[in-house]
């Protein structure tokens, strides 16, 4: 089928009435569920009743989110990663949305490729093979396996859904307005108005695949510049096959993290634990290097964007539509904070709460009036550590009345995505049931970032933009490895 056989239109933004209708559909599902939870709480339900309610509610919410699509799918993806915060039934049910969104028709996908990527040429002129059934389908785009006719290389072609942009921007606008209400901003342990505001700004960039391809190549180059190569695989973008709504890249082997357990049915518990720890190590190193060394990192980490190869253990990071760049001040402030948290003693009474609060405030985190130093220290340790207890009797559970998140008055927008990376790793840690201190794992990387900065200030190495700093960081690491050990 040629591009002319299917008319591809890019719709106008949704009308106010359509936006209200989508929001009404969402709350028509949520209000009865919230009422059911309140009623069972008043009745004092037993464990079996709670489990049954969790299962029914999770299924209802998944049905509503899948019907609405758009940004509501991404909200479900966030819940699916938080096994430490939501009932297991929710994580299990909503995990199917991370890579299970219904694909667009094959003819429409071909039309988008021929019109947007190939400039009107037929698919057969460029690809010797093009699978009409996508290998993955997500809220913004779907991916098709193909083979380049000229080189025989197997590639993945990412194709944007034609009608998704105005729908998703309207969804995030609704959620931002909702959580901007004073009553709701006070009701949650995290200020979701700031979260959705920042997500909305980043979401606008996610629809530009040319920018995404550039971001993917920048992160790939930075990670490969490390002394032992990249801890995760990042597919190379195919030169000359990049367009605003479609682009091609190396094909990634493996399965989404959300399906990894299904691919290892005969694995022993010990083998699963080993696999999980290797996964944690790879992701921890990758995000530590992106955030603390490059200051430019993947901003949408969820199980559908992480592929694992059960045979080799290789981890591949996908979907760079949402990325975030930190200011130098924030990047180095984070590095100092990570080192300080990592150096704290096990005895909570000996934790330097004053120093930790001073550093976390220096990167823009503000606390409610009357919050003491232990609140600041607990918030930093909650973000970068997995201790079962925190200073001042604060709880690591976000839903607990003693959560340090309740002491946070405002969270800097550029830190929202650092928090998402932390959430991903903490979620995997909780699923494995292991202790994993992000601060201790990131501390060597943070020290490297600080030493490299000192070298630049002293003129030992020339100044460089973050995008060009990879090889310099590699050189610094090789020369100063004994000092950083």
Automatic annotation (TrEMBL):
Any one GO molecular function term: ATP binding
InterPro entries per UniProt: ABC1_dom (IPR004147), Kinase-like_dom_sf (IPR011009), Mito_struct-func_regulator (IPR051130), Prot_kinase_dom (IPR000719)
Domain of life assignment: Eukaryota
Occurrences of domain Protein kinase (ranges): 129-475
PROSITE patterns, per database record: PROTEIN_KINASE_DOM (PS50011)
Full protein name: Protein kinase domain-containing protein
Organism per entry: Prasinoderma singulare
């Amino acid at each position: 089928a040629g591009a002319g056989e299917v008319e591809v239109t890019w719709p106008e933004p949704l009308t106010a009435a359509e936006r209200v209708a989508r929001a009404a559909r969402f709350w028509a599902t949520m209000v009865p569920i919230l009422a059911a939870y309140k009623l069972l709480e008043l009745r004092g339900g037993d464990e079996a009743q709670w489990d049954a309610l969790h299962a029914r509610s999770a299924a209802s919410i998944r049905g509503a989110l899948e019907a609405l699509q758009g940004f509501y799918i991404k909200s479900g993806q966030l819940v699916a990663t938080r096994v430490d915060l939501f009932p297991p039934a929710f994580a299990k049910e909503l995990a199917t949305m991370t890579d299970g969104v219904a694909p667009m028709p094959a003819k429409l996908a071909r039309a988008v490729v021929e019109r947007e990527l190939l400039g009107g040429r037929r698919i057969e002129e460029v690809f010797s093979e093009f699978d009409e059934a996508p290998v993955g389908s997500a809220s913004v785009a779907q991916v098709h396996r193909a083979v380049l006719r000229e080189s025989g290389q197997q590639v993945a072609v990412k194709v944007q859904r034609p009608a998704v942009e105005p729908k998703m921007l309207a969804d995030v606008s609704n959620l931002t307005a909702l959580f901007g209400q004073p009553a709701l901003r006070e009701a949650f342990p995290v200020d979701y108005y700031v979260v959705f505001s920042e997500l909305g700004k980043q979401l606008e960039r996610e629809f530009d695949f040319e920018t995404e391809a550039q971001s993917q190549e920048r992160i790939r180059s930075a990670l490969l510049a490390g002394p032992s190569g990249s801890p995760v695989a990042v597919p190379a973008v195919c030169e000359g096959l990049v367009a605003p709504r479609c682009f091609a890249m190396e094909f990634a082997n493996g399965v989404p993290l959300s399906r990894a357990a299904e691919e290892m049915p005969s694995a022993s518990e010990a083998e699963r634990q080993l696999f999980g720890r290797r996964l944690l190590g790879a992701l921890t190193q990758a995000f530590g290097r992106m955030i603390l060394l490059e200051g430019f990192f993947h901003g949408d980490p969820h199980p559908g964007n992480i592929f694992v190869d059960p045979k080799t253990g290789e981890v591949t990071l996908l979907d760079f539509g949402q990325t975030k760049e930190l200011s130098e001040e924030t990047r180095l402030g984070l590095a100092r904070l990570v080192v300080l948290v990592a150096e704290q003693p096990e005895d909570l009474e000996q934790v330097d709460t004053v120093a930790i609060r001073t550093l976390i405030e220096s990167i823009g985190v503000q606390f409610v009036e009357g919050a003491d130093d232990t609140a600041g220290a607990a918030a930093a340790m909650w973000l970068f550590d997995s201790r079962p207890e925190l200073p001042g009797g604060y709880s690591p559970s976000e839903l607990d009345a003693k959560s340090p998140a309740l002491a946070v008055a405002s969270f800097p927008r550029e830190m929202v995505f650092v928090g998402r990376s932390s959430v991903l790793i903490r979620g995997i840690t909780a699923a494995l049931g292991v202790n994993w201190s992000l601060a201790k794992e990131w501390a060597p990387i943070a020290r490297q970032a600080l030493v490299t900065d000192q070298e630049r200030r002293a003129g030992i190495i020339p100044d460089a933009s973050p995008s060009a700093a990879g090889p310099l960081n590699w050189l610094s690491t090789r020369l100063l490895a004994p000092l950083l050990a």
